[in-house]
Amino acid sequence: MIRLGNLQIDAPFYQAGLAGYSDHAMRVVAREHGCPHCVTEAMLDHFLIAGGKARHAAEIPDNDHPITGQLMGSNPHDIARGAAILADLGYDVIDVNLACPVKKIKKKARGGHLLSATDTAIDILKAVRDAVPDEIPLTVKLRRASDDSPEAAQRFFAIFEATIDNDYAGATVHGRTVEQKYIGPSNWGFLADLTQRYRDAANRTGTFTIGGSGDVWTARDIFRMIQQTGVHWVSVARGCIGNPWIFRQARALLDNNPDEADRPPTIHEQRAVLLRHFECSLQLHGEIPASKMMRKFGIKFARHHPRADDIKNAFISVSTLADWHHVLDRFYTTNGPGRLADPENATQNAFARNDDACPTPG
């Protein structure tokens, strides 16, 4: 059981926020496969303040709880206003993104680039805490530093300790630097040192929860990270794109059922999830936008099929609901065993584009 302030979550993992992916449709499918908690895509403060489509898109359906609203900005006043809006909209937790490494937001001084601006980052943490009612837990997403210099490490720890001092319920730390982006391995050793250093950290909300992120591709990786680093819970990001079964498999490990944990989804299980995901996306976006959205999901789902390459090529050309059904009827009608996606290949594919973790600058 994981505790964030007054909120209790029954499993030590959650679906991370992924721009362009983790919309309501993806979150519904994840929850139906055992995900206990989800994080939204990072929302920009000034879009929320302006209202309109962005604010409407931030509204939460009743079946999408518990949920964390992730927020990003560069100005303490504006990000505090954005946090207050999320609180009014009923988010269970509000998360401040100080982790996004994408170069295109560097000029905006947002996300992980704020790890080089200690005073501003700490002012943002304070402003958000002041703007949000005490009963709503706050968390922060961080990278282990802006780069590998000693000065960057000092800035990281100053910001990390500010989350504790300002009564945040927890922090999730990605084991790469901002400079690394998504290249090279996530430094789990750093996470182990961090949890050891702050194992007794607490504030007036209770135990300070430390989460880990980076290189989590399978259900076993979730528990390997917990065992090796001592983090309280694990953020599952690219490892769950086109792979909601990772949550079912993680639940199986919690239930001491290794056979189920290692069982790949059958062809018919894959078909059912592909239909369900498209159905949810269709309701959310409409047919043409949903069809375009589901292309990139289909490519990721294809990794579980024995004819993965053929299916990837077929999904690339999907433009309508009829196209989607054509691919399913062609490749997913005959049942049979699927396959577990190759974590190494998954890693390589994830690094092919490193700008999907953060929102479009504006």
The main sheet comes to: 9 strands, parallel
Q: Give the integer mean of the pLDDT values.
A: 91
Secondary-structure element sequence? EEEHEEHHEHEHEHEHEEEHEHHHHHHH
Which range best describes the helical content: under 10%, 10-25%, 25-40%, 40-55%, 55-70% or over 70%?
Answer: 40-55%
Share in β-strands: 5-15%
Structural domain count: 2
Number of helices: 15
EC number: 1.3.1.-
GO molecular function: flavin adenine dinucleotide binding; tRNA binding; tRNA dihydrouridine synthase activity
Catalytic activity: a 5,6-dihydrouridine in tRNA + NADP(+) = a uridine in tRNA + NADPH + H(+); a 5,6-dihydrouridine in tRNA + NAD(+) = a uridine in tRNA + NADH + H(+)
Organism: Mucisphaera calidilacus
Describe the protein:
InterPro entries: Aldolase_TIM, DUS-like_FMN-bd, DUS_fam, tRNA-dHydroUridine_Synthase_C. FMN binds at residues 70, 141, 174, 237-238. Belongs to the dus family. Residues 17-324 form the DUS-like FMN-binding domain. Catalyzes the synthesis of 5,6-dihydrouridine (D), a modified base found in the D-loop of most tRNAs, via the reduction of the C5-C6 double bond in target uridines. The protein has 362 residues and is an alpha/beta fold. It has two domains: 2-261, Alpha-Beta Barrel (TIM Barrel); 267-331, Non-ribosomal Peptide Synthetase Peptidyl Carrier Protein, Chain A. Helix content is 45%, strand content 14%. The protein is built from 15 helices and 13 strands. It has helices at 24-32, 45-50, 53-57, 76-88, 118-131, 150-165, 188-197, 219-229, 245-254, 258-261, 267-285, 287-301, 308-316, 321-331, 343-352; strands at 2-4, 7-9, 13-15, 38-39, 43-44, 67-72, 93-98, 138-143, 170-174, 202-203, 206-207, 209-213, 233-236. The strands form three sheets. Strands 3, 4, 5, 6, 7, 8, 9, 12 and 13 form a nine-stranded parallel beta sheet that branches. Strands 1-2 form a two-stranded antiparallel sheet. Strands 10-11 form a two-stranded antiparallel ribbon. Helix 1 (24-32) runs antiparallel to helix 11 (267-285), helix 8 crosses helix 9 (245-254) and helix 12 (287-301) runs antiparallel to helix 13 (308-316). It is globular and about 55 Å long. Residues 344-357 have low confidence and may be disordered.
